[in-house]
Amino acid sequence: MLPHVTRNVVAFPLCYLYPPLPHQTVAMRTAFLDASLDEACWRLASKEPVRVIVLGGGFDTRSLRYLEKKAHMEFYEIDLPSVVTQKQRIFERFQRRRPGAALPRLLGADLNDLDQVKAQLARIFQQRDQARPDGARPPTVFMVEAVLMYLKQDVVLPLLASCMADASRHSSDVKFVFADRLPDMPYDDKDPTVERQAAEKVLKAAGLRLDAWQGKPG
């Protein structure tokens, strides 16, 4: 995704000059999310492509990796309009290097504004429903990575609950795959079950059940 010169700066061998800790944290998070997404899609396997909706996609390239593998998925990314505009320009440059590459659909919305998010979700679901008038309801997976911590904290649970409710009306099943910090979470380095139990309680308030958990090291 980076310009040619910048890619050389972060590639081998110069990449070994940078401190490893931040990169390792992101690498662990990426591995966890990829494995969780793979498992969710395997469990939701159906004749229809699994619909993956990324909340706050930023400049992440996960959708490109999966679409390049011809994964049985449809990717949508919702982020601020300014971010969507910038990423669209990057995609145009990317397609000049790789003509015909599959891309996610980008939609602009402020995640702090539930009405904007609901409007974009309605576009996604309406488009799919119109494409399949036979009533097929493909499963939906929401992905959230390091986004909730930057939102207004009183918006987080209503956002999750709203996404869950809207998707449930158009999907055979709905799952969330996330690596993030939930509001009002305690931390106890001696007893990690404290944080998990708190997460279960918070997610339950949004209509979600916690299936898998991995605490962040440190």
Describe the structure.
The protein is of the alpha/beta class and 218 residues long. The protein has a single domain (20-205), classed as Vaccinia Virus protein VP39 (Rossmann fold). 47% of the residues lie in helices and 13% in strands. It contains 7 helices and 5 strands, in the order H-H-E-H-E-H-E-H-E-H-E-H. The chain has helices at 4-10, 20-43, 62-68, 81-97, 114-131, 153-168, 193-205, and strands at residues 50-55, 73-79, 105-108, 140-145, 174-179. A 5-stranded parallel sheet has the order 3-2-1-4-5, with helices on both faces. Helix 5 (114-131) runs parallel beside helix 6. The protein starts with a helix and ends in a 13-residue tail after the last helix.
Estimate percent helicity.
Answer: 40-55%
What top-tier CATH class fits best?
A: Alpha Beta
Tally of DSSP helical segments: 7
Q: What is the 3D form?
A: globular
Strand order of the largest sheet: 3-2-1-4-5
What is the count of structural domains? 1
Strand content: 5-15%
Q: Tell me the CATH superfamily.
A: Vaccinia Virus protein VP39
Which CATH architecture would you pick? 3-Layer(aba) Sandwich
What's the short story on this structure?
This protein is an alpha/beta fold. Helices cover 47% and strands 13% of the residues.
Layout of SSEs?
Layout: H1 4-10, H2 20-43, E1 50-55, H3 62-68, E2 73-79, H4 81-97, E3 105-108, H5 114-131, E4 140-145, H6 153-168, E5 174-179, H7 193-205
Parallel strand pairs: 1-2, 1-4, 2-3, 4-5
Helix pairs in contact: 5-6
Index terms:
218 residues, five-stranded parallel β-sheet, Rossmann fold, globular, alpha/beta, 47% helix, single chain, 7 helices, 5 strands, 13% strand
